């Protein structure tokens, strides 16, 4: 029999929002706080960043830092260095890198988008939204920017506008798993666990769904108290080291928010 934990919408929403602010939605693969698809990815060894362990991410950040110091104005170097910094939790440093890069590349849409994400990661949500909207061009709209804007609206407590942005993104890029994942997390923030899980299961079944989508689904399942299932989902398509790090990180952050213990102490009842 499948069991779940009975939580009020307020309890679930508050827990989800506190965890989102803590930056764990993407667990080991994103520290933007909004689970958005990264606009700039890469590493010095060409391994996708969403497949790296925290140890590998730290090594990548160190390597990109050396390149950045040699040429801080280089776009590719700056973008990758900032990405690595955000993914290891160094949001303020990532913002400093992107602020400098945005000054040097003030009309570059990719740079502006990454700058907006760095602002969001540092908690400067309204400024981040302004920068991302400035990067968007009405004649050639970018679905990634709509998705990023949606994630920021969600953090600002405006799920209605957030979902408008996600729908615009999906109009431009149908069946994009990262956008559907963001949409699922939007439902989580409003306490709709069923809607969140439905969208995340839809996202994970689509081609191109990455580890970030899987970890978001694991989080939603875990918040419902189905811990064993959450750990199984989190471990899928990851190395044993990555899976172990993800679960340890999830438990640690939930514990720090007093959420994991509170969830376990809730009365368990069959899912209806």
Distance between the termini: 11 Å
| Global geometry | globular
Give the SSE string.
EHHHHHHHHHHHHHHE
Derived from helix and strand composition plus strand pairing, the structural class reads mainly alpha
Compute the CA-based radius of gyration. Answer: 18 Å
Describe the sheet with the most strands.
Answer: 2 strands, antiparallel
Number of strands: 2
Number of helices, where a helix is a run of at least 4 consecutive DSSP H or I residues:
14
Strand share of the residues?
under 5%
Please bin the fraction of helical residues.
55-70%
Uncertain regions spanning at least 5 consecutive residues? 1-8, 18-43, 263-272
Mean pLDDT: 76
Report on the architecture of this protein.
By secondary structure, the protein is mostly helical. The protein has a domain at about 1-35 and about 175-270. The protein has 14 helices and two strands; from the N terminus they run βααααααααααααααβ. A two-stranded antiparallel sheet has the order 1-2. The model is unreliable at about 1-10, about 20-45 and about 265-270 (pLDDT under 50). InterPro entries: TPR-4 (IPR011717), TPR-like_helical_dom_sf (IPR011990), TPR_2 (IPR013105), TPR_rpt (IPR019734), UCP035836 (IPR014596). It holds the Pfam family TPR_2. This is Tetratricopeptide repeat protein.
């Amino acid at each position: 029999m499948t069991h779940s934990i009975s939580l009020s919408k307020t309890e679930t929403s508050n827990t989800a929002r506190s965890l989102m602010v803590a930056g764990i939605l993407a667990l080991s693969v994103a520290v933007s706080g909004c689970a958005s698809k990264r606009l700039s990815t890469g590493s010095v060894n060409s391994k996708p960043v969403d497949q790296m362990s925290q140890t590998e991410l730290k090594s990548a950040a160190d390597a990109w830092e050396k390149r950045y110091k040699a040429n801080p104005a280089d776009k590719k170097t700056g973008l990758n260095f900032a990405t690595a910094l955000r993914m290891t939790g160094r949001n303020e440093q990532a913002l400093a890198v992107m602020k400098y890069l945005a000054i040097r590349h003030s009309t570059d849409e990719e740079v502006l988008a990454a700058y907006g994400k760095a602002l969001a990661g540092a908690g400067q949500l309204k400024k981040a939204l302004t920068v991302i909207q400035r990067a968007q061009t009405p004649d050639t709209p970018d679905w990634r920017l709509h998705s990023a804007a949606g994630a920021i609206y969600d953090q600002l407590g405006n799920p209605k506008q957030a979902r408008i942005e996600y729908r615009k993104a999906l109009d431009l890029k149908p069946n994009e798993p990262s956008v559907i994942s963001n949409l699922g997390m939007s439902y989580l923030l409003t306490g709709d666990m069923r809607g969140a899980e439905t969208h995340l299961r839809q996202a994970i079944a689509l081609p191109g769904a990455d580890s970030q989508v899987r970890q978001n689904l694991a989080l939603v399942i875990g918040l419902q108290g189905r811990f064993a299932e959450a750990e199984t989902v989190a471990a899928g398509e990851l190395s044993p080291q990555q899976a172990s790090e993800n679960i340890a990180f999830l438990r640690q952050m939930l514990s720090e928010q007093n959420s994991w213990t509170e969830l376990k102490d809730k009365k368990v009842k069959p899912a209806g």
